[in-house]
Design brief:
This protein is of the alpha/beta class. It contains 13 helices and eleven strands. The structure holds iron/sulfur cluster.
Length: 360
């Protein structure tokens, strides 16, 4: 899209429609994602910022994760440091004790994170002793009252497994589509895009909130990025994590060219146009790919981010992240309600206050 009057009027008309509650079409999103000039991209970011403000206010939703079972994963996801198929030197350990989860939850809460995701590197979950152990950890996290019980535990093999997780107190499950359906075979061969969609359907049927997005910069086209956004819209997921590839030495994607910061910001903005009411969470790769432009994720339309470390790479100091959010006039106190619920009491409560004070 060239920087010309009709580009401006196209963007203006689209913005008015989204602010008025209408959806944009695939063709319109495909045109937005092809914007090239920095002046036009800056206009797009400003428009996405207005849409974020309208639907998400000034609240920022923060989440943290704990690497509960690391490395030696039998899957072959080509971006992943934890796959046993690649020699990455990434740490390996079996499922952690409950105390480690509770400690991570306290740290997450001190950093204003609403949820703590228990993350495991394995194919997924089926009925058996491992599911029993995972459910005990979820129950302990839910009982602790320090952070919402979230998890990312791979492919779910049956509805009964999803129902068990729900009964244990799980609120949110992360399971990314990773990329567009037609690009998926280029990033993983040991399971399919359809396996991932089926897991999301089990979760939704169990009444578990779904966090699903993907990784950008894995050789996909811009059109693939738009396709994934519309697939996520169709699946009616609750949170959309956007990760930007941080190439890991030893993986097949180690030499992948990182996306340019403006390309990343433009992609976030296009996702805000397609998914105006969703929590759009910028997750892995923020620091390394955006560098000094990190605060721009919120201007581009993001309403959420990860705080603390990632699974195999280090995040920015949480204090710096909280300062960045406040300096932008945003509030790291999410308020704890979903699009389909009435707003509830926010972060401050008798249980939370000591942690909030410690973080401030
Ligand atoms: S399933 Fe998860 S942990 Fe295993 S290789 Fe794929 S991304 Fe990595």
């Amino acid at each position: 899209m060239k920087h010309e009057p009709d580009s401006r009027s196209f963007l203006g008309a689209l913005t008015s429609r989204v602010l008025g509650g209408d959806a944009i079409t695939f063709a319109e999103a495909a045109r937005l994602v092809e914007i090239e000039s920095s002046a036009d991209i800056h206009d797009l970011l400003a428009a996405a910022n207005r849409i974020r403000e309208k639907f998400k206010g000034n609240k920022v939703h923060l989440c943290s994760i704990v690497n509960a079972k690391a490395g030696a994963c039998p899957e072959d996801c080509r971006f992943c440091a934890q796959s046993a198929a690649y020699d990455t030197g990434s740490p390996r350990h079996s499922f952690v004790e409950q105390e480690a989860v509770i400690k991570a939850a306290s740290e997450a809460h001190a950093n204003y994170a609403q949820g703590l995701g228990i993350v495991a590197a394995w194919r997924g979950l089926k009925e058996g002793p491992m599911l029993d152990e995972v459910c005990r950890a979820i129950e302990a996290l839910a009982r602790s009252g320090t952070a919402r019980a979230d998890a990312s535990l791979g492919i779910i093999e049956s509805q009964r497994v999803a129902d068990r997780l729900k009964a244990a107190g799980l609120v949110v499950y992360n399971h990314n589509l990773e990329t567009a359906e037609e690009h998926f075979p280029n990033i993983c061969t040991t399971h399919t895009y359809a396996d991932r969609v089926r897991t999301i359907q089990f979760l939704k049927h169990a009444g578990i909130r779904v966090c699903s997005g993907g990784i950008f910069g894995m050789g996909e086209t811009r059109r693939h990025r738009v396709q994934m956004a519309f697939a996520l819209k169709e699946l009616a997921v609750d949170v959309v994590p956007m990760n930007f590839l941080n190439p890991i030495a030893g993986t097949p994607f180690e030499n992948m060219t990182p996306l340019a910061p403006l390309e990343i910001l433009k992609t976030i903005a296009v996702y805000r146009f397609i998914l105006p009411r969703k929590e759009i969470m910028v997750a892995g790769g923020r620091e390394v790919n955006l560098r000094d432009l990190q605060p721009m994720i919120f201007v581009a339309g993001a309403s959420a981010t990860m705080i603390g470390n990632y699974l195999t790479t280090t995040g920015q100091d949480p204090k710096k992240d909280l300062q960045m959010i406040r300096d932008l006039g945003l509030d790291p106190d999410w308020g704890g309600h979903w699009d389909d619920e009435e707003p509830q009491q926010s972060h401050a409560c008798e249980v939370c206050t000591p942690f909030s004070a410690a973080a401030g």
